Amino acid sequence: MPSVYLQTFGCQMNAADSNGLAHQAWSLGCSFTETPETADILIVNTCAIREKAETRVYGRLGQLKSLKRPESKLLVTGCLAEKDRAVMRSKAPWVDALLGPREYGAFKALLADWGVPTDLPPRDTPLQMPSSETLDGGADALEYSHLRSLVSITRGCEKFCTYCIVPYTRGPLESIGPEEIESQVRREVRCGAKEITLLGQNVNSYLYEGLNFADLLRRVGSIEGLERLTFLTSHPHDFNREVVDALAEVQNVAPRLHLPIQSASNEVLQAMGRLYTVEEYLEKIAYFRERLPGWALTTDIICGFPTETEHDFEATLELVRRGTFEYAFIFAYSPRSGTPAATMTPQVEPQERLRRLQAVNSAQLDSSRRFHERFIGETVRVLSSGPSKKDAAKMAGKTGHNVTVVWPRDERTLHQAFVDVAIDQAHSWGLIGQVA
Ligand code: SF4
What we know:
Low-confidence stretches: 132-140
Bound molecules: iron/sulfur cluster
Number of domains: 3
Radius of gyration: 22 Å
CATH class of the largest domain: Alpha Beta
CATH architecture of the largest domain: Alpha-Beta Horseshoe
CATH superfamily of the largest domain: tm_1862 like domain
Number of strands: 20
């Protein structure tokens, strides 16, 4: 049967899509290889979020042109396949087919065109494929990579934040039916997943025949064998009390919420097209903190967005200094051509964007360290990621709060999915402890 080489660029939505494509190929009997030279079918799942990501993809396509056998087929999927549909033929004419993010229903037919038999009984054994973690971490990592799995619940987005290209590449919002989601979650649990992340650009806008995201959380949360449920990403405009109430009810949901604020200035939020004010955001998280004490709140922040003044930036810095977030993903604004923000004036100088990023980052590191210090002396349950990538004599994993924990490699617990670790050190990046 044909062997498939699959490489994924970009976000977790792409990782989830790759997982779906891999399952389709696997069910038809394909196997997977880590070496493009030996593959019959090569798939590159691409990202177009930034120009740098596009450059990396075209660089890789250039390498694959010389690595692949002449008779092998090369398929490009994902956001760049959609965005560069018209120009891919001239930029990379050795690519055999393109499928955008809304076209994966045509994947099996394409495999059939390329000689993969589709009339055999479908294979229902657990998917076995090398993950990108395996490539970094060696054979050990494969044992742990399937413990976490991503399941998409929506496709596309129609929020049109002024800095984002996603609505142009992934199209309008579409919610996936709950039965399909539940059957994917069950399949992943059968294959060994302990933690499932429900994925969407804006999971809070999920709506399928009257069933909303709060209802979906309750349904998926009751699936037998699922130990940890989490979700990404939420939009403050659509995140509401009903979702918080559902989170308080569902037993196996991980105690963390990612709610991107982006800026603490209403003027900047308006320029970003974010559809909420700082006051509305704070009111929502006040209810969240009241109903779910002890949870971790994480966020995204963009520094140096066009029109952001020193005053705007100080407001964001102050919010972070107050310890509002347990963790934050902080970015310097990077213009994306084709988005309204790229041509807004005035743009903040790149050096100044970087200065603001560093200031916010340093304030957040203090808050994260203070949050981590609360765990000293406690025993935490960690979902293992296997041997640490930096030091094979150590193991690493994540708590339900998504805090990184490192502990000495220990043969007794080496093959356990969950390990109880007694914490004795806290840092801004995470925790260190010993097997309890
Ligand atoms: S919510 Fe905004 S940032 Fe997120 S995918 Fe949609 S447009 Fe992009």
